[in-house]
Amino acid sequence: MNLFRNAVFTAAIAGLFAGLVMTALQTYATVPLILQAETFEGAGMTGHDHGSAAVAAEAESEPTAAAHGHGGEAWAPADGFERFAFTALANIVTGIGFALVLVAASEFAGGIAGWRQGVFWGFAGFAIFTLAPGLGLPPELPAMPAADLMDRQVWWLGTVAATAAGLALIAFRGTAVISLIGVALIVVPHVLGAPQPASHESPVPAELHRQFVVAVTVTNLIFWVLLGGVVGMVRQHFIGAAANPSKSFA
Amino acid sequence: MMNTVSASLGAGTSTASRAIQLGAVALLGLFVVGFVGFSHAEIVHNAGHDYRHSMAFPCH
């Protein structure tokens, strides 16, 4: 038995499938809105990168910030097929990455018994990686003002970690007190609050942003449900069969 | 590297080696997602630009 290899194999199949579906969904639902928002870049007073206040504030600490867009001199995929191909690649590669995390977490918890249980693991992934961070930092379009990138990444990662830990405490540690601690862990990042830009004024129409928030949230929900469901299905056929003799799973 | 480690463990995988292997699986996944979604390298950002926006990762 080779747990590491089987887990990676399972994750690769699920990630490849969910990543491909996600790419198709994004091509239809989110990328057109991103392209539309890019037409507003440079039209507003904030420019592409950060709110003007944020840019001024971090000019000293992060000299590359002003050039951190696709307008700079760094390589960027050409619009059209090349750009699409890199989006697809990113979806597949991170689909496998998310699947690795999901497989590892679920095996620690005893393994997923089938596709239906996998779907619930997918819902957990959606809550942890999309819903929770999206409450404080809603999906944003190009040309929208935002707080310092590093601050937002730190809050995002902290919220994901706290939500995951909170859900795990509620799901796997029976007592009421520990479940309450789990709820507190989920709530705390939102009490602290996500880093916000000095002003939310943006050249991007609010309606375009609203559509984008819905599109991102729904596509991510489909992605996670598929990812969890396929992991549950694939695991049963591959890892499950391999592990049965030693009964080390489930 | 991880493959050689786990392959030598044979069929009777212990609880500790299970934990190590699963930990390695999780770390690998987090590293992959972190690199594609969070790297500040401009080339990585540009390549994954539409992806990062579509996943609601902090971007720009």
Question: What report would you give on this structure?
Answer:
The complex is a heterodimer of chains A (250) and B (60). Chain A has 250 residues and is mainly α. Chain A has one domain. In chain A, 68% of the residues lie in helices and 0% in strands. Chain A has 9 helices and no strands. Chain A has helices spanning 3-29, 31-38, 52-58, 81-108, 115-136, 149-172, 176-192, 206-237, 239-243. Chain B is elongated. Chain B is built from 4 helices and no strands. Chain B has helices spanning 2-7, 15-38, 42-47, 49-54. The N and C termini of chain B lie far apart (35 Å). The chains are: A mainly alpha (250), B mainly alpha (60). The interface between A and B is large, with 67 and 47 residues.
Number of helices of chain B: 4
Report how far apart the termini of chain B are.
35 Å
Q: What proportion of the residues of chain A is helical, as a percent range?
A: 55-70%
The residue ranges of chain A in which pLDDT falls below 50 over 5 or more consecutive positions are 45-70, 241-250
Please, what is the average pLDDT of chain B?
82
Largest sheet report of chain A:
none
**Percent in strands of chain B:** under 5%
Helix content of chain B: over 70%
> Mean pLDDT score of chain A, rounded?
85
The count of strands of chain A amounts to: 0
In whole angstroms, how far apart are the ends of chain A? Answer: 15 Å
Topology order of chain A in helix (H) and strand (E) letters: HHHHHHHHH
Please, what is the oligomeric state?
heterodimer
The greatest inter-chain interface is formed by: A-B, 67 and 47 residues
Write the H/E string of chain B, N to C.
HHHH
How many domain modules of chain B? 1
- Kindly estimate the percentage of residues of chain A that lie in beta strands according to DSSP: under 5%
Uncertain residue segments of chain B = 1-11
Count of extended strands of chain B? 0
